[in-house]
Amino acid sequence: LKVVVLISGGGSNLRSLLEQAEHADFPARIVAVGADREATGLFHAQDFRVPTFTVPYGSFDSREEWGAALVTQLAGWSADLIVLSGMMRLLPQNVLDAFAPRIINTHPAYLPEFPGAHAVRDAIAAGAAQTGASVIVVDSGVDSGPVLARERVAIDPGMGEDALHDRIKTVERRLLAQVIRDIATGAIRLEEYQA
Ligand code: GRF
């Protein structure tokens, strides 16, 4: 299974996936890592000798033109699966048209609780005793697609955002690798989620 991972930031979850994908029994290969900006996380791919690319959002006149350039890149890698891992930009319809439902995303909350870009902060602000981590099929909404895996994560009283996010990421990394395994083995059939 050829996987392309897309990031926007530090890529700590990407690094964990690169490490797990190196094991001989991992049934998928990360063929490239892309970003919508000069993301610092791209150096993780370079450390693992995985090719990288950027499709800088700011270089295009519209979301659609950015999306078209991203589709061209992704098609060029013959990606079987696109993994959003800390990719902080909604995909325009032309990307979904080209690859959905073969796009999955990891999110630091127990979806449908706390969708959006500030899930960890929102869970703390809500005074929740627990939140979670989720892996979903990407659809046209904001973290609204079908849940493939999710797991509860406890919030300790007075816990800060960074500490909670690190605790959540530990779960995300395990869930994401397992979902990719399941897609590669057919235990998860993404075609069932074709809109
Ligand atoms: C992860 O929690 C991911 O779910 C969210 O942003 C975080 C990215 O962290 N979208 P990193 O860049 O992998 O360290």
TrEMBL record:
* Name of the protein this chain belongs to: Phosphoribosylglycinamide formyltransferase
Alphabetized UniProt keyword annotations:
Purine biosynthesis, Transferase
The gene name on file is purN
Determine the domain of life of the protein's source.
Bacteria
So, what pathway does this thing act in?
A: Purine metabolism; IMP biosynthesis via de novo pathway; N(2)-formyl-N(1)-(5-phospho-D-ribosyl)glycinamide from N(1)-(5-phospho-D-ribosyl)glycinamide (10-formyl THF route): step 1/1
**A single Pfam family, by name?**
Formyl_trans_N
**What's one GO BP annotation on this UniProt entry?**
'de novo' IMP biosynthetic process
Say if the entry is tagged with keyword Metal-binding.
no
State the organism of origin: Amnibacterium flavum
Catalytic activity entry? N(1)-(5-phospho-beta-D-ribosyl)glycinamide + (6R)-10-formyltetrahydrofolate = N(2)-formyl-N(1)-(5-phospho-beta-D-ribosyl)glycinamide + (6S)-5,6,7,8-tetrahydrofolate + H(+)
The Formyl transferase N-terminal domain covers 2-180
